[in-house]
Amino acid sequence: MTKALDAVVSLLDLEQIEQDIFRGRSPEGERRQRVFGGQVAGQALVAAGRTVPADRPVHSLHAYFIRPGDTAVPLVYRVERLRDGRSFTTRRVTAIQHGKAIFTLSASFQVGESGYEHSAGMPEVPGPDEVETAADRLRRLHLPADDYVRQNPIDLRHVGPLPVEAERNRSLITSRNVVWLRADGELPDDPLLHVCLMTYASDLTLLDTVLLAHGVSWGSDVVYGASLDHAMWFHRQFRVDRWLLFVQDSPVASGARGLARGAVYTHDGELVVSVVQEGLLRPRAPGHGSGPERSG
Fold first, then answer.
1. CB burial string 61-91: b at 16+ within 10 A, e below
2. What are the pLDDT digits (tens) for 110-164?
3. What are the DSSP calls for 135-186, one per residue?
4. Distance of CA 73 to CAs 27, 34, 68, 102, Å?
5. Is 203 in the active site?
6. CA quadruple 273, 105, 54, 195: dihedral sign
7. Which domains can be identified in the chain, with CATH numbers?
8. Is 108 known to be catalytic?
9. For burial by CB atoms within 10 Å, which of 23, 90, 128, 258 has the most?
10. Which entry of 202, 248, 250, 277 is annotated as an active-site residue?
11. What pLDDT, in 10s, does the model give residues 3-39?
12. Which is nearest to 175 in space by CA: 99, 85, 258, 109?
């Protein structure tokens, strides 16, 4: 694994401090002022998954970001065992810092069953080998790239424009965002780890889809953003260290909130994950702060 991927896998290896209570942390030297939403969601799913038998993979999660997370202190995850049925298991996880809940996640797990099968087809797009990495693209266009883009544990390759490109060339504005992604290295054969890393990765580009529709980017000083809630459905098993196509769109933005949804396909076109996220996207007057303003 690359150093960046190894660091994220380490973040997902929570410490169990009591029955159904786990402790996580943020990356050492984290430069963000708030905990990245994909991190807390991934860690919470790890906590839930460690209280469920291995033969019951997660099939859905629904999460709310309640307060900004503090990167300087540990995160405590408390798991509630809501149901252990013959086919389904349900868990609720609360992430706590400074004595207050900052995040909640409900997750449902199911034993393997057979039934009806169908799925929407994957759109035809250039393959990942035909698309530049986000870091290489920004470098070629002489556009700013922060450390997180350059040292991302997830290899991201945008088929369409980046938000900063649409901001500088308004003819590129679109409400569709298509990204090839994969973990930047080989991972163990642990299905829960792959699902939790996909949960982490899903928060990297969804709100970008809303920004693309308005020609603004995180690097400007005109928008403040934060994840509000996040839902995922896992339809089939997959490996996040193999190429996945994340097809995203934004059907609506209103009330200083934007909605984005996505479908994740394997390289051979199998639909494996569906995602929906709503985020706070609050326009503000130019000059009020600078740099990437996003939390949650």
1. bbbbbbbbbebeeebbbbbeeeeeeeeebbb
2. 999 999 999 999 999 999 999 999 888 888 887 766 555 667 899 999 999 998 8
3. HHHHHHTT----HHHHT-SEEEEESS--HHHHHH-GGG--SEEEEEEEESS-
4. 11, 11, 12, 13
5. yes
6. positive
7. 3-113+129-295 (2.40.160.210)
8. no
9. 258
10. 277
11. 889 999 999 999 999 999 999 999 987 777 789 999 9
12. 258
For 191, the 3-state DSSP assignment is helix
Set 26, 227, 250, 295: catalytic member: 227
d(CA 131, CA 136) in angstroms, rounded, equals 10
Q: Which two tokens stand for residue 71?
A: 């990167």
Active site residue 248: no
Of the chain, the end-to-end C-alpha distance in Å amounts to 26
Catalytic one among 203, 208, 241, 249?
A: 203
Q: Is 30 helix (H, G, I), strand (E, B) or coil?
A: coil
Residue recorded with tokens 């900052």:
102
Pairing of strands 294-295, 223-234: parallel
